[in-house]
Amino acid sequence: xxxxxxxxxxxxxxxxxxxxxxxxxxxxxxxxxxxxxxxxxxxxxxxxxxxxxxxxxxxxxxxxxxxxxxxxxxxxxxxxxxxxxxxxxxxxxxxxxxxxxxxxxxxxxxxxxxxxxxxxxxxxxxxxxxxxxxxxxxxxxxxxxxxxxxxxxxxxxxxxxxxxxxxxxxxxxxxxxxxxxxxxxxxxxxxxxxxxxxxxxxxxxxxxxxxxxxxxxxxxxxxxxxxxxxxxxxxxxxxxxxxxxxxxxxxx
Length: 252
Prior knowledge:
The chain is of the alpha/beta class and 252 residues long. Helices cover 16% and strands 29% of the residues. A hairpin with a 2-residue loop joins strand 2 (14-19) and strand 3 (22-26). It is globular.
C-alpha cells in the first residue's frame, strides 16, 4: 500500500480504512440485496474484502452485520464486535473474535482500535445476546472515527484530540429515519462537536426498498449534499468530502 492513509466508501456503513499498512473493513455489506433492500449502483470491488487485518461490527442490525457478506471474508481475520455478539460470528466460522465495550482498546498491527459510545439500539439476533451499539476510533499516524449508527450524545466532543477524519452517518435506507440516527443537520452538529480535519458522510445512497428510487429519489442523493450545506454553516473549519459508493480519498 503506497498511501499510508486512505479510506474507500464502499457503501452504506461499509468503509475500507487503510492506515499505516493496516486494512480494516467496517460493517461489511458486500452483496446485491438484504431482504427487501437492493443495492443501488455497482457492486463493491472484490478487492475491498482481500488481505484484511480486521473487521469492525458496530451493532447487529442486518444492514450492519450481514452474515452472507461476512461469509465472503477470510474466517481467520480478526473481528471486533459488541459484547454479546461473538457467538454469532463464531458460528459462521470466524476463529478470532473479540467482544468490546465502550472504553476498550486493542492493537491491530501499527494502529490502535478503540470502542466508543454510540446512541443507537444495538439489536438482537438469534444466537446472540442483546448488545449495545458501538462506534470505533482507529488511531495511528492519522486518526479516524467511524460512528456506525448513532444519534448525538453527551461527550461526543471528547472522542478525539485533533481528529483527522470522521465517518458520519447522514441518512439510512428509506424515505424516513427512526430514532437513534443522524440526519444531515444533526450530523453537521456532530461534525461541529468532533471538529475533525475532514468529514465524509456515509450511510446513504446504497440500499433502498423497491420503488424508492421512483417515489422518493431525493433520499438516495441529497443527504450528503444537505450535510455539506449544514456543515458549512455549523462547522466551517471541517472539510467535507462527499464520496460516492466505491470512491476513495487520501488523508495524507
